[in-house]
Write a structure and sequence with these properties.
elongated; three-stranded antiparallel sheet; four-stranded antiparallel sheet; 109 residues
């Protein structure tokens, strides 16, 4: 996201996309990722190295791909939201409820 005082700022392209997972049972991703794709997969597509015990309680499997490498998150669900919050740390700001201007995607039961 670019801020209004930066070169290249545009109202049409300067925003954040948040991926919010809940009830995480397993996570295997690096600290930062670029140009990702994300999809929900079935247990049959899960690599054998990941224990199927993580799938208890109707967990969902999300495969994230970046630079040709697959990473996995097993969680209760995923919300993808768009916002234009500027210069605020919403995760650590206790007054924030992580609200979004637009919900792009949310998992369904």
């Amino acid at each position: 996201m670019k801020y209004p005082d930066q070169d290249g700022y545009s109202e049409n392209t300067s925003y954040n996309i948040d991926l919010e997972f809940w009830s995480i049972q397993y996570i295997d991703i690096p600290a930062s990722l670029n140009k990702i794709t994300i999809k929900e997969i079935t247990s049959k597509q899960l690599p054998k190295r990941i224990n199927l015990e993580f799938l208890k309680y109707d967990m969902k499997i999300f495969e994230i791909q970046s630079k040709g490498i697959q990473y996995y998150i097993i969680a209760g669900g995923l919300l993808v939201g768009k916002n234009k919050w500027e210069n605020e740390d919403r995760v650590f700001n206790s007054n924030s409820n992580l609200e979004h201007e637009e919900i792009i995607y949310i998992t369904k039961k």
